[in-house]
Amino acid sequence: MSAQDTLQDLKDWLERNGGFLHPHVHLNKVDSGFSVVASDDLPTDSKIVSCPFTLAITKDVALQALSVLLDSPSPLKDLTSWSERQLISVYLSFHWIVGDGPSSKNVLTHFPYVKSLPARDKLRTPLHFTEAELELLKGSNLYGATLDRHREWKAEFEECRGPISTVDREWADQLTWELYLTAATHLSSRAFPSTLISQNLSLTSPGTPEPILLPGVDSLNHARAEPVSWVQSYLGSGPVADAGSCISLVLHNHVSAGAELFNNYGPKPNSELILGYGFSLPNNPDDTILLKIGGPHGGRWEVGREARGADPVWLNVLGAVQEGSEPTYDDHLDAAEALADMAQQLMDKLPDVSIPTPGDVREDVALMIRHYIEGQRDILQSLIEYAGAKEWHGDIPAEET
Ligand SMILES: C[S@@+](CC[C@H](N)C(=O)[O-])C[C@H]1O[C@@H](n2cnc3c(N)ncnc32)[C@H](O)[C@@H]1O
């Protein structure tokens, strides 16, 4: 089946099931998957795409389907302890493993969607990097975060295979790490918060929102600060929505014919865009660096460009050097020096990405890493300047002035 047929299938399936795709937009095959393009001018506040709640892939949808497929004396107990990532990743993977024959027991209901998702070789999150590409991250926070994520996801994957192999050995064998990783990456790079399809759309509702997939609504790429709304039409009064409930994406800007349509994934630093989505933005104003300070006064802080958010770090460093009840002028000098030293040491550890990219590193990956490291350097430089300002123009305690 050609890529265009796959996308047409996705559109037909969405519409057959009560979804909507604006007649003046089309899905375009591009290198990294697909993009959504206007085939005609779109006025402001156009509703572009809607996904009925019934097509959303949630933890519960995955749990129900897997419980039916793995119907044996005991697996249910195991499945209820799985995280939403485990359930949704195995649910997506089972579309490939079980197929749409009788073994699917009619509970694998997302084939047109699953087939439209980017193939593994198109994914660019660091868990899909080659050794040489990962090596380029050494010395940065993202290197450690990648290793942590690899460890965590691999352990979750191993945990899933146990109950599956008690039911069907072949299915367990076919659930390879590569297949699970691909599905888990699809989830991390396309997830919406579950609050969007809950009765109370409040983002401050109790409990942490879970990641869910909203076929169709997830087809737009990201543009920073793009004015968009995710509009919920919740029908019914109980906790279970009535048929016809859906979530829509509305773009508030006018879009000219031929232009790409964008969603807004929120203000995210490149570390998060790369780790979760596999892309980066040049000179991303939302970049941050994670500072971890050990010791009794220790903690973790995120500092942004132009030393945004550095004040709590400064107070912490000052508190660590100060001996009396009030900081002295010397304490200020010591703290400024300690903060500048820390920033300089972190800067020295960052990889040098200005050198020509080694041949076995893909160009798009090298570019992402360059964007990220440039942001880290810029923030650390701003922190050094911030420390300098504290040293020369800092708050000097009243009794010493
Ligand atoms: C929710 S999907 C969007 C649809 C996607 N293009 C596809 O083909 O399935 C998110 C993925 O799209 C790609 N993407 C989104 N915004 C991007 C951007 N501004 N630049 C490059 N890639 C982007 C990344 O691969 C990301 O993981």
TrEMBL record:
<protein>
    <submittedName>
        <fullName>SET domain protein</fullName>
    </submittedName>
</protein>
<dbReference type="InterPro" id="IPR044432">
    <property type="entry name" value="Set10/Efm1_SET"/>
</dbReference>
<dbReference type="GO" id="GO:0016279">
    <property type="term" value="F:protein-lysine N-methyltransferase activity"/>
</dbReference>
<feature type="domain" description="SET">
    <location>
        <begin position="23"/>
        <end position="266"/>
    </location>
</feature>
<dbReference type="InterPro" id="IPR050600">
    <property type="entry name" value="SETD3_SETD6_MTase"/>
</dbReference>
<dbReference type="GO" id="GO:0005634">
    <property type="term" value="C:nucleus"/>
</dbReference>
<dbReference type="InterPro" id="IPR046341">
    <property type="entry name" value="SET_dom_sf"/>
</dbReference>
<dbReference type="InterPro" id="IPR001214">
    <property type="entry name" value="SET_dom"/>
</dbReference>
